[in-house]
Amino acid sequence: MSREDLKALQSERLVKQVRHVYENVPYYREKMQAKGVTPDDIHGIEDLHKLPFLSKSDLREAYPYGLMAKPLSECVRIHSTSGTTGKRVVAFYTQNDIDLWEDCCARAITAAGGTNEDVVQVAYGYGLFTGGAGLHGGSHKVGSLTLPMSSGNTERQLQFMTDLESTILCCTPSYAAYLAESAIESGVRDKIKLKAGIFGAEAWTEEMRHDIEDKLAIKAYDIYGLTELSGPGVAFECEEQKGMHINEDHFIAEIIDPVTEEVLPHGEKGELVFTSITKEAFPMIRYRTRDICVLNDVPCSCGRTHVRMSKPMGRSDDMLIIRGVNVFPSQIETVLLNNGMSANYQIIVDRKNNTDTLDINVEMPADMFTDSLTDIANMEKKLIGALRAMLGITAKVHLVSPKSITRSEGKAVRVIDNRKLY
Ligand code: DLL
Q1: In angstroms, what is the span from residue 205 Cα to ligand 1's centroid?
Q2: Considering all CA atoms of the chain, what is the largest pairwise distance in Å, rounded to the nearest integer?
Q3: What is the pTM of this model?
Q4: CA of 226 relative to ligand 1 center, distance in Å
Q5: Which CATH superfamily is domain 1-316 in?
Q6: pLDDT at position 319, please?
Q7: What is the CATH number assigned to the segment(s) 320-421?
Q8: Residue 357, pLDDT above cutoff 60
Q9: What separation in angstroms does the CA of 122 have from each of 173, 215, 291?
Q10: Pocket of ligand 1 from Cβ distances under 6 Å
Q11: H or E, element range at 403
């Protein structure tokens, strides 16, 4: 679809969506009235900026039914965020919402080379989390043979993967790394027939991509999404692996300055904001994702015309402020992997005598393992120097033996902040 046709489609859908929420969701109506906007003021995407933003705190305030835009009788499913703090967010779906979501996931599988000849192993968690259900539905739409494994039970994952000759693996990147490590250790690596992986739901670096691609001899594709916008499939990578194409016929993307809320031009780094223009039961108008990234509208050589988003460079609320310096966990991961370390690490932040401390525990890969204290001290010194150059602050690095950090089957918990900041 040409950019002009897409813009016309987005405008038509936006106008309809704004009227739908205004008429059916008192919470939206009041927010719009407070800003002096009515559906009559919205004629197309050029008027998007007139609408108020929606944030996670609005979702918590409206929990559970306050943002539902369709009667309960038309809703067929809920999913929910894993929310570690505060109330969970509960999202509702009509059958049509499920269909469109699965279409988005089917596009992601197709972009990774999936067809009805493929065996798709879905090792994202099933249940309230959207990962399992989303890729499962997408795989059905493509007509692939779907293995609804859910996450965990690594031995059984590897058995099905080798016996059924799975060709596409869908899970979090941290679980993919764990599966790769386990396959090598248990000696079944050569029996694996995977050609591609569709990995997302958490931040992961290019270095981690190369590590997984090498270990499993696959092409690893990124996929992005969030529960509030249906789940995985909001954006996905094509064979170019240079940013994720946003499904713009369903989601309008904007980048804003997270402090001033000013809309920034494509190419500038800021907070990603989405407006869902086809979702019926739980529409999101100008939803602030807190994910920091850059939009790229340079045409892609794959032929898709939808804009691409960069890998999120961390969430605005994931950013650590350590001794006044902004630190993103992804910067630490880049340094560790560039220096030959494994992706199994933990970042521990604490405050002692009013000074923040940053400790990083990282596993030595098996081939670098040594019990020579001098060698360990030299390696730690090298990492401390590389981290200082990247972050501008000093961290303590502790090399630990292989397998000593707990593995993740879903989203990895990599940051432990023990400071009592609030
Ligand atoms: O993580 C949906 C999903 C499932 C996406 C499976 C991809 C694959 P939530 O649990 O609501 O939904 O978490 C959403 O996870 O705002 C990002 O901060 C982060 N996230 C999701 N995908 C990526 C990615 C699912 N590819 C939150 N890279 C989002 C980095 C990601 N972060």
Answers
A1: 14
A2: 73
A3: 0.90
A4: 5
A5: ANL, N-terminal domain (3.40.50.12780)
A6: 77
A7: 3.30.300.30
A8: yes
A9: 13, 19, 25
A10: 81-82, 124, 130-131, 200-203, 222-227, 231-232, 289, 291, 311-312, 315
A11: none
